[in-house]
From TrEMBL:
SMART domains: WD40 (SM00320). It is a peripheral membrane protein. InterPro entries: PROPPIN (IPR048720), WD40/YVTN_repeat-like_dom_sf (IPR015943), WD40_repeat_dom_sf (IPR036322), WD40_rpt (IPR001680). Signal peptide: none annotated. This is WD40-repeat-containing domain protein. Belongs to the WD repeat PROPPIN family. Its main location: membrane. It comes from Massariosphaeria phaeospora. Keywords: Repeat, WD repeat. GO terms for cellular component: vacuolar membrane.
Length: 251
């Protein structure tokens, strides 16, 4: 890296209170100038691509290590959308749940075979990524959807045709310090953490150690650290098992 560094480009975005930006080898993704829009910049070619990912503001954004796929979530928090790059076509749509939620973290596994997501529902979801949606056999298509043949019937609610997570488990969230909130008598607790939307500690931050192991870290008064293993059971179904747990602020 040169010192001082050279400016390569600058781009205007919508308000980005969560500082959303994802970078991989040769590609950077960030919010565009329109709500729900993702802009991608290719360092090698200098090309700029735009994905109209959601109708509401973005809440989470992630790129694979190779930069060939981008995952997005909006403030609605019910759907995770998967896009290819550089074609910018939608590869898949994953349903985290039916009720709205706040997405805490979104992260691809190192080899790009899975994507993990955490939310304020205190859950960790793992989704299998399609190796290619075009040309799937009916059998493969049926296995992809939770509702199988029901997903092909017309006039059903939208969530019957969405792809559900292949594995899910509960996670620990860091507790808020006593007295925090709008009715607190403490000026510090009322103000919250400077520069953080809502002033609350970070929760459910995902980090993959390898393609089978990930950690989830939360902040707060009882800040927990958890380690999970992704495995396959006797029926061929993916499962998540917790292999480690610690309140890391304790001595």
């Amino acid at each position: 890296m040169r010192m001082p560094p050279d400016k390569i480009a600058d781009f205007e975005t919508v308000k980005n209170p969560y500082g959303l930006c994802a970078m991989s080898k040769g590609v950077v993704a960030f919010p565009g100038r329109t709500l729900g829009q993702v802009k991608l910049f290719d360092f090698a070619s200098g090309n700029v691509s735009i994905i109209p990912a959601h109708e509401t503001p973005l809440r989470a954004l992630a790129l694979t290590a190779k930069g060939d796929m981008v995952a997005t979530a909006s403030e609605q928090g019910t759907l995770i959308r998967l896009w290819s790059f550089p074609s910018c076509t939608k590869l898949a749509e994953f349903r985290r749940g039916v009720d709205p939620s706040v997405i805490f973290s979104l992260a691809f596994s190192p080899l790009g075979s899975m994507v993990a997501v955490t939310s304020d529902k205190a859950t960790l979801h793992i989704f299998n990524l399609p190796s290619g949606t075009a040309g799937q056999t009916p059998e493969a298509e049926e296995k992809t959807h939770k509702w199988g043949l029901l997903s092909k019937l017309p006039l059903l609610p939208r969530h019957f045709s969405d792809t559900y997570s292949s594995a899910t488990t509960k996670i620990e969230l860091g507790e808020e310090p006593e007295g925090r909130g709008p009715h607190s008598k403490s000026a510090t607790f009322n103000a919250g953490i400077p520069g953080v939307p809502g002033g609350k500690p970070t929760q459910g931050l995902i980090g993959w150690l390898d393609d089978e192991t990930l950690i989830v870290i939360s902040a707060g008064q009882d800040a927990p650290w958890e380690k999970f293993k992704v495995a396959v059971d006797d029926t061929g179904k993916r499962v998540l098992t917790r292999e480690g747990w610690k309140k890391y602020l304790e001595s």
